[in-house]
Design a protein that fits this description.
The chain is α+β, with helices and mostly antiparallel strands and about 170 residues long. Helices cover about 50% and strands about 25% of the residues. It has one domain: 4'-phosphopantetheinyl transferase domain (Ribosomal Protein L22, Chain A, Alpha-Beta Complex), CATH 3.90.470.20. InterPro entries: 4-PPantetheinyl_Trfase_dom, 4-PPantetheinyl_Trfase_dom_sf, PPTase_2.
Length: about 170
């Protein structure tokens, strides 16, 4: 069974789309280069605002592999940013924006990007969110079943200067 046939008939609870101008991330990487000791702490502060600890760990591995500023780095960072932006839009289709934590908490604490063995991107809910952010336990009380019964189906695509991300919040199989 292929991916499309496995997902036919699943109910969509929310949809989000975001587009990113990649030179914006290239500029960010040049201005606050992770390879320059003078700007590394600023770079780390920026990534902590929208990247989960698992994503930052993967980023540190990419920095070692690349050992220079590269399109791969900017696409990784831009892809995470775009997925987080469109995930917020998808969640707001089902959850009142007033009930959600601030975007920074949602981006850096609740959700993280992974990929399956075939390289297909995934967006996961952090199961430890309640313990890390006790202030937002009410969210789990009100919408906890949403996070256990739904998942994100995501897609990323880039061409030249642009990257687009799409998320569908769907019922789990």
């Amino acid at each position: 069974m292929n991916f499309a046939s496995a997902n036919i008939g699943r109910k969509i609870a929310g949809v989000g789309v975001d587009i990113v101008y990649l030179p914006r991330f290239a500029h960010l990487l040049e201005k606050y280069s992770p390879f320059d000791p003078r700007s590394r702490s600023t770079f780390d502060k920026i990534t902590q605002k929208f990247m989960h600890e698992k994503e930052r760990f993967h980023l540190s591995n990419l920095l070692i592999e690349e050992n220079r500023l590269s399109p791969r780095l900017q696409e990784y960072m831009a892809g995470i940013w775009a997925l987080k932006e469109c995930s917020l839009k998808a969640l707001c289709c089902r959850v009142s924006k007033h009930d959600l934590p601030p975007a920074q908490v949602l981006y850096a604490g609740m959700l993280y990007k992974t990929q399956n063995d075939a390289g297909v991107p995934r967006l996961e809910f952090d199961k430890m969110f309640d313990k890390k952010y006790p202030k937002y336990q009410q969210l789990s009380k009100m919408y906890g079943s949403l996070f256990s019964t739904h998942e994100f189906l995501v897609s990323l695509s880039h061409d030249k200067d642009y990257l687009i991300a799409i998320t569908n919040l769907v019922e789990r199989e």
